[in-house]
Amino acid sequence: MTTTVAPAIEVRDLVVRRGKREVLHGLTCTIPPGSVTGLLGPSGSGKTTLMRSIVGVQKVERGTVTVLGRPAGSAALRSQVGYLTQAPSVYADLTVRENVRYFASLYKGVSTADADAVLESVGLADHATQLVRDLSGGQRARANLACTLVSRPTVLILDEPTVGQDPVLRDELWRQFRALAAEGVTVLVSSHVMDEAGRCDRLLLIREGTLVADERPDVITAATGTTDLEAAFLHLIRTGQTVMSS
Amino acid sequence: MNGKILASTVRRVLNQLRHDHRTVGLLVVVPPLLLTLLYYMYYEDSPLVFQRIALTMLGIFPFIIMFLITSIAMLRERTTGTLERLLTTPMGKVDLLFGYGTAFGLAAAIQASIACAVAYLFLGLQTQGSVGLVILIAIANAVLGMALGLLASAFARTEFQAVQFMPLIVAPQLLLCGLFVARENMAGWLQAIANALPMTYSVEALTEVGRYAEPTATLWKDLGIVAGCVVVALVLASATLRRRTD
Fold first, then answer.
1. Do A58 and B12 count as a contact with CB atoms less than 8 A apart?
2. What is the tens place of the pLDDT at every residue in A39-66?
3. Tell me, which fold does domain A32-57+73-80+153-246 have in CATH?
4. How many CB atoms lie within 10 A of CB A210?
């Protein structure tokens, strides 16, 4: 399905050490453009470290990470890769609108009108003039997301974007991710909630710094003889089986 | 350097200040309050001592205050993840450093103007040279404090540690700058230390403004040294802004 298209993200034999602990042990995967890829695994399995490596903010011990044909973290990629951190990295002492407009101003061709439109799309239009420190945890997370989406990145790396959001909003956010992918944006979303996994084109299941699956959700369930992804993941861990495309 | 990014960063830093009413209040009120205190301590019995100390303090306040504010503000950028986020955008390190420098320089200009107005109009401060030069030196000192604060923030993990850099970096300069004991009367090795500390030169410059109607060569040399120290501190601070971390 994607063999003819150049991958948007290509990770090869990636080894990352944080302190004395090796977090990723020679991980290899490719992510096709214009897709939503889910990165799933328990807390501490290396999801955030892999995402940081793709964004280019993580010191890497060995291996290569290529994004849109360039080494991860290249200056040319900074206007094309959007990164949402798990903990909100927005200014608590600015209003929601001031935050989004500020991050918008760092990119060429992004206007304040774009910033206001993004606020609308994450459901924060009514809170635009509130200081971020006065928002609830879920609203703060959405303000954080707005600051990432506003740059209209070609590659979108989202670390747990839907944590703490109500089901209706979660559904709307997933629709947005799907719509972005349909426009050609490459979306990588981490989650530890399996029910979101079914909405991805592809899944990367990671455990203790090693991939145990890299395939379409339906292929993973079929290969493990299970009916849902939760059961499939359990099966893979218990049997040591892996499901890898090519 | 990117003009648009620089301008929006200046606006962002000033907006953060503006939302913090108490800090703004303290910035404006504290220097005149302390000058008034000095007035009642010295003016009756030793008006000349008041003249010397008040003039020196006009340069020292902005240095201390901007050092503190910047080191905390920058530490917050580091600990809340906004710094890492900024470094994944097209923003250059220079834009960030100059953004802080310009914003706090402006704040210092306002602060120094108010302090000077109070000192000259109500407390009977007199200088041979112009008040404009006093404000200029105050701004240079504020920018120096800011640059050292940016640098110091790299070595603090918590706000507790950051505030303790103040006695470490500010106090020796305060003690040796010539305010307590004239530099000529210090032991040789103390003079040598004093000569290596930037505040010594800004205090000397202020003394020149006090004594001579026209700006002297010594004054310009002193300002040049302070500016040089600012550049060195900024270059060192810029080296502590790492795009890739563990």
1. no
2. 998 888 999 999 999 999 999 999 999 9
3. Rossmann fold (3.40.50)
4. 15
Distances (CA, A) of A235 to A46, A192, A206, A238: 20, 17, 14, 5
Contacts of B78 in chain A (CB under 8 A): none
The domains of chain A are located at 32-57+73-80+153-246, 88-152
Nearest Cβ partner for B12 among A73, A94, A107: A94
Pair B138, B146: CB distance under 8 Å = no
DSSP assignment of A186-201, as one string?
EEEEEES-GGGGGGSS
pLDDT of residue A165: 84
Write out the two tokens for A188: 């990588």
The SS3 of residue B50 is helix
**Residues of A engaging B, defined by a Cβ cutoff of 8 Å:** 18-19, 55-59, 73, 75, 78-79, 81, 83, 85, 87-95, 98, 101-103, 105-108, 131, 147, 151
pTM of the full structure: 0.90
Residue to substitute from A91, A96, A152, A158, interface B, most B β-carbons within 10 A: A91
Verify whether the Cβ–Cβ distance B84 to A98 is below 8 Å. Answer: no
A31-45, A56-70, A230-244: the lowest-pLDDT one = A230-244
CB contact under 8 A, A90 and B15: no
pLDDT reported for residue A192: 77
Residue B244 with chain A: CB contacts under 8 Å: 56-59, 73
Q: What is the pLDDT of residues A94-109, one digit of tens each?
A: 999 999 999 999 999 9
Radius of gyration from C-alpha coordinates of chain A: 18
**What pLDDT, in 10s, does the model give residues B135-193?**
999 999 999 999 999 999 989 999 999 999 999 998 999 999 988 888 889 999 999 99
Which alpha helices (H) appear in chain B, and where do they start and end? 3-19, 21-42, 47-79, 82-87, 93-121, 131-153, 159-176, 188-196, 198-211, 217-239
On whether the CB atoms of residues B176 and B182 are closer than 8 A, the answer is no
What pLDDT was estimated at residue A164? 80
